Amino acid sequence: MRKIDELLYEYGLSHQNETNKTIHWICVPAIFFSIVGLIFSIPSETLEIYLPFLQNFANWATIVLAIVLVYYLTISPPLTLGMFFFSALCLAVANLIDLISPVPLWAISIGIFTISWIFQFYGHKIEGKKPSFLKDIQFLLIGPAWLMHFIYKRMGFAY
């Protein structure tokens, strides 16, 4: 069995209840976005100190997402493409909020993060099983891929 199949199967074991699944369809992307927003909020000027050759081309969120996409590439190149598009959407929305919102992006991101995790833990209380990431931290990245694999299946794409 491929590693991605094993990871998705194991993740799915603690996500059988329909209410918990529905909560995950909303909250996992929201948490992913909120983390992108928080990292996006780190001033890009700090890149000048640590990675001066990237300061004109990227921000911290772009760099972190590139690393995350390398992880996805190691477990499923097809899913990496979907996660790339979702990551790009998160970056675009974070940038838009940063440009036009009177409320700082970091504050919006903290709010989304907090509310989403409350719902996630409520979903797992209904499920009667602990969140997968408590067993293995990599499941924090498998959650979004788990949802993406359902999208791929529905569209008839191999993952």
TrEMBL record:
- Show the Pfam families listed in the entry: Mpo1-like
Q: Which residues are the signal sequence here?
A: none
Q: Membrane-spanning residues where? A: 23-43, 103-121, 133-152
Under which name does UniProt file this protein?
DUF962 domain-containing protein
User: Sorted alphabetically, which keywords does the UniProt record give?
Assistant: Membrane, Transmembrane, Transmembrane helix
What is the top-level taxon of the source organism? Bacteria
Keyword Transport in annotation: no
Q: Which residues form a coiled coil?
A: none
